[in-house]
Design a protein that fits this description.
The protein is an alpha+beta fold. The chain contains six helices and four strands; from the N terminus they run H-H-H-E-H-E-E-H-H-E. The protein has one domain. The protein binds heme C. The site of heme C has 25 residues, from helix 3, helix 5 and strand 4. InterPro entries: Tll0287-like_dom.
Length: 187
């Protein structure tokens, strides 16, 4: 029995998209989660790109500050899932702090990215207290460096400090994990 429990715990801890689907229900939830991740990125990335093109990074920060939480809230309202973004170095300290499961998985994503995995391939799922949870890593690309990199321009830095006085989301390099989209199926 000890042996069995140990194996079950290890399985839960190590669960990734490939291994977490313990039944058809979980497989279906995982499929939904992937679609929501795609929907979130599919709305946010063009918004960010357009804001950058139209007004540059300082303008894009104000757009991101409004639009990222709005998109998360509207997807949450229409999907039956709680949708948010989290990070080990959050910018929005009000809603992007990782909880224990997210933190453990993000630390693992960091190790995997440092070992050469592409962040876009890193995801995890689990069932906590009967709720299905899914975490999809968001990798740092060159465009992200404008606002999350090591050499932030003074104007961008000033805007970040104004909107996010406790910001810790700078100093990243391409290929690292910036954070993740975190989904919890509402009971
Ligand atoms: C124009 C500046 C800008 C660029 C470029 C940018 N971000 Fe951000 N990022 C922000 C702002 C502002 C927030 C906080 C948004 C909020 O309040 O929810 C943020 C928050 C995040 C978060 C949520 C966690 C947290 O720290 O609050 C993630 C994940 C993230 N960005 C990933 C990326 C990735 C990946 C890229 C590149 C594809 C990127 N960002 C490019 C400004 C930017």
């Amino acid at each position: 029995m000890r042996q069995l429990l140990g194996t079950a715990t290890l399985f839960a801890v190590c669960a990734t998209a490939a291994t977490a689907a313990t039944g058809s229900d979980n497989a279906a939830l995982e499929q939904q989660a992937r679609q929501l991740v795609a929907a979130f990125a599919g709305q946010l990335k063009p918004t960010l790109k357009q804001a950058l093109e139209q007004g540059g990074p300082v303008h894009a920060i104000s757009v991101c500050a409004d639009e990222a939480p709005r998109i998360a809230a509207s997807l949450s309202a229409e999907s039956g899932w709680a949708v948010r973004r989290v990070s080990l170095q959050p910018r929005n300290t009000g809603n992007a702090q990782a909880d224990e499961w997210e933190r453990t998985r993000l630390e693992e994503f960091d190790r995997q990215a440092a070992a050469g995995s592409a962040p876009g391939t890193l995801h995890a799922s689990t069932v906590v207290d009967g709720n299905f949870r899914y975490l999809q890593a968001q990798g740092v690309e060159s465009v992200c460096l404008l606002c999350h990199g090591e050499n932030i321009s003074p104007a961008v830095q000033a805007a970040l400090t104004e909107y996010y006085p406790d910001d810790s989301a700078t100093g990243y390099a391409p290929g690292q994990v910036r954070g993740a989209i975190s989904l919890t199926r509402k009971p």
